Inverse folding.
């Protein structure tokens, strides 16, 4: 007799919206073991598991879910860690509806299995158990690798190579490691204690970490190559784009990077206990529709804004953000102004933002990305009141390293060109991966790129004699 | 952690800070800055580099005590450590042979223009220094300047040393001293650099200023340091901090510089500088 399947995912307990918009604690509270087992039982254990194809790092999803259903959490986390070094992070921030869960056969009729929530459950379970398993580390092979940037790409390369016996040194420009996980994604979505735990784990594998070290400035990549056999560049996409409309240098106009960095990295939400101020705004308008925009809009609410708007030129269907975060933002009272395009920022005499002239849009023919192109509606201009605006329309790679590394081929958008399968760049002994190559993408794709680069570095260095 | 070698008040409200940071001395150039965080909860603040000793691996900055973070720094003693000292950052001042160069320094800019003057001299230029302050007791490092500059002039608002008056007297001083500079480099508070640029524009003398906006990361990530130069938005941390003073949108810059004024405490406005730093 076929088993009956609950059509919906087991809901994950969350903080109530009215409560959570007053704090920076994590919104989603995670499954209990009982809830996890109940959700795991929804899995059909397909012979040909399509979900695995959807996961950029190819986790054996049915196997870890089976372990959960059987209550063997230890075996479950081990299965995940064969492929993914940061499950507590990915379970929380992967766009599952675009990846593993998109391919789940249950999803055809019902809701797919909550793969991300289960992954997160196992990672949290392991952390709470206090005994984190470490892989066996190969004896030192006398080869040295420098990793630039300590985001997901850098962390993955560093830990993979450390396990293989390489002496790895990671250089980070900021005063805390973790990349976007630390300075960009807010505490209420990804607690910093988790990121710190992952960084500590990498260090426990023997990886050296230099903070406050700006490669290209403090030392160039070529200077590093005098001391290292290979350099991996995982410097991310940290250069913020602006809309390039009039008024963007008014006071109260932020890049999402500035706004989120002030809050997360510099703990601006604790001002004046911490010194970095973050002005309290009454009406905040966030431009963009991705994860960064959701994070900024929800941060603004928590910092005491009366109204926080997402101003997006397409419609809800096209929002690139994780669905779960869109829903969370809606529950929290973020106001979505769809089909709206900012034209001009308006300031007062002291140079402070007071309003935004916008235009209404409608959806036309599909464009190159397959999404329907927004076209302006004539005569629909209007002014919305706002005392802060946050631009979250994207980032490109920082030019510091390209500018100071001759011979490195750079793409049109300032990205470092690297082979998709190996991460090799135009320069011998320099590899690159993550957002610095693809432009702003996802945590898991950065990790995937890091994994491939580590493999290629290993093949290359173990195959050649030490010069 | 970075060890403080020296921290002393050299004139009222201005402190000299020397930190052990060999990774910075390795590649530091005139015009660069460093990002400093005085303690774990502190802000990241940019400080211009005023001198360094490559052998000892130490870097010196001069800073004005204005807000919470600089007050914290001002309480540090030799032997203490600070958690962040990152750099060198920013583009270096373009050093080449220009001919005669006038280096104008005021406030902490007296410190930061010093390595510029030294490098320009080494590149074969005739360097003339003009140090300005509200009063003679706020001037410092004259000896260091005398060792690299052909002439070291002074300008004080109360006339207690050198010329009397404001920096707007610059054209007149040039005439009186018979100086025809091929380049002017001005480092100091925003008002000083703006005024220097304003009076040199009609004279057609190229003027380089070292901009000092609010920064967080100092590597181009946050964009808070943006300013308009020749009609285009620039990031002071990666495109500058040196810019052509005749192309800077000063009015906008002054407004942006004040973004966080109400939040910051200005413990000592007495220096006559803090109100328009
Ligand atoms: C607010 C926000 C929310 C996001 N939400 C999600 C999400 O929900 N799900 C998802 O999958 N993805 C999300 N992303 C995207 C994801 O975080 C990135 O794709 C991912 O972090 C890229 O990893 P990376 O290792 O390539 O680079 P990064 O994480 O950007 O790390 C690069 C690191 O390199 C350092 N660095 C840069 N230049 C230098 C230098 N010259 N020397 C030394 N160090 C340097 C940087 O300081 C940084 O720490 C989000 C991004 C942001 C900004
Ligand atoms: S890593 Fe991301 S894509 Fe892969 S199974 Fe986990 S949540 Fe899905």
């Amino acid at each position: 007799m076929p088993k009956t399947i609950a059509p919906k995912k087991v809901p994950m307990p969350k903080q109530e919206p009215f409560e959570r918009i007053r704090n920076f604690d994590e919104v989603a509270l995670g499954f209990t073991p009982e809830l996890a087992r109940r959700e795991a039982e929804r899995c059909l254990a397909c012979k040909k598991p399509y979900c695995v194809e959807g996961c950029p790092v190819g986790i054996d999803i049915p196997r870890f879910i089976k372990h959960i259903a059987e209550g063997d959490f230890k075996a479950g986390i081990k299965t995940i860690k064969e492929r993914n070094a940061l499950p507590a992070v990915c379970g929380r921030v992967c766009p599952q509806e675009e990846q593993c869960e998109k391919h789940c056969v249950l999803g055809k009729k019902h809701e797919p299995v909550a793969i991300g929530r289960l992954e997160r459950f196992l990672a949290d379970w392991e952390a709470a158990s206090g005994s984190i398993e470490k892989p066996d580390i190969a004896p030192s092979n006398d080869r040295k690798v420098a990793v630039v940037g300590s985001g997901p790409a850098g962390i993955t390369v560093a830990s993979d190579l450390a396990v293989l016996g390489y002496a790895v040194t990671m250089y980070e420009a900021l005063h805390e490691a973790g990349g976007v996980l630390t300075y960009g994604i807010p505490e209420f979505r990804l607690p910093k204690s988790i990121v710190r735990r992952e960084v500590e784990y990498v260090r426990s594998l023997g990886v050296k970490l230099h903070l406050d070290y700006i490669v290209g400035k403090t030392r160039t990549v070529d200077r590093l190559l005098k001391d290292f056999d290979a350099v991996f560049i995982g410097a991310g996409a940290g250069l913020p784009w602006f809309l390039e409309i009039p008024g963007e240098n008014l006071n109260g106009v932020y890049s999402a990077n500035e706004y989120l960095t002030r809050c997360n990295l510099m703990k601006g939400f604790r001002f004046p206990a911490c010194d970095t101020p973050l002005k309290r705004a009454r009406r905040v308008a966030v431009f963009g529709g991705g994860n960064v925009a959701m994070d900024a809009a929800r941060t603004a609410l928590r910092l005491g804004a009366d109204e926080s708007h997402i101003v997006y030129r397409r419609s809800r269907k096209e929002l690139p953000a994780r669905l779960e975060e869109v829903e969370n933002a809606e529950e929290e009272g973020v106001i979505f102004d769809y089909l709206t395009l900012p034209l001009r920022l308006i300031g007062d005499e002291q140079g402070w933002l007071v309003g935004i002239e916008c235009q209404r849009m409608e959806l036309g023919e599909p464009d190159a990305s397959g999404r329907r192109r927004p076209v302006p509606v004539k005569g629909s201009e209007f002014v919305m009141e706002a005392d802060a605006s946050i631009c979250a329309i994207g980032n490109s790679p920082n030019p510091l390293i390209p500018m100071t590394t001759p011979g490195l081929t750079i793409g049109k958008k300032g990205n470092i060109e690297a082979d998709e399968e190996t991460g090799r760049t135009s320069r011998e002994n320099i590899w690159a991966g993550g957002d610095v190559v693809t432009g702003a993408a996802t945590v898991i794709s950065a990790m995937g790129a890091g994994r491939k680069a580590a493999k290629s570095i290993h093949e290359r260095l173990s195959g050649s004699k030490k010069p | 952690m970075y060890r403080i070698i020296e921290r002393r008040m050299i004139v009222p409200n201005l402190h000299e800070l020397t930190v052990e940071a060999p990774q910075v001395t390795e590649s530091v150039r005139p015009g660069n800055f460093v990002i400093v965080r005085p303690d774990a909860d502190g802000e990241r603040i940019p400080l211009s580099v005023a001198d360094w000793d490559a052998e000892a691996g130490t870097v010196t900055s001069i800073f004005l005590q204005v807000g919470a973070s600089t007050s914290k720094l001002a309480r540090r003693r030799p032997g203490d450590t600070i958690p962040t000292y990152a750099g060198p950052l920013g583009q270096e001042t373009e050093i080449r042979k220009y001919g005669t160069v006038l280096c104008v320094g005021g406030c902490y800019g007296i410190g930061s223009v010093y390595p510029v003057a030294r490098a320009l001299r080494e590149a074969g230029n005739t360097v003339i220094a003009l140090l300005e302050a509200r009063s003679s007791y706020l001037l410092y490092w004259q000896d260091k300047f005398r060792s690299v500059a052909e002439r070291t002039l002074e300008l004080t608002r109360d006339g207690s040393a050198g010329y009397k008056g404001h920096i707007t007297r610059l054209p007149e001083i040039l005439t009186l001293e018979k100086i025809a500079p091929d380049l002017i480099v001005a480092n100091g508070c925003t008002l000083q650099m703006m005024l220097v640029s304003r009076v040199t524009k009609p004279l057609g003398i190229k003027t380089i200023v070292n901009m000092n906006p609010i920064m967080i990361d100092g590597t181009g990530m946050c964009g808070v340091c943006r300013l308009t130069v020749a009609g285009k938005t620039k990031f002071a941390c990666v495109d500058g901090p040196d810019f052509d003073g005749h192309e800077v949108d000063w009015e906008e810059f002054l407004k942006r510089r004040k973004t966080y004024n109400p939040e910051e405490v200005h413990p000592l406005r007495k220096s006559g500088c803090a109100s328009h730093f």
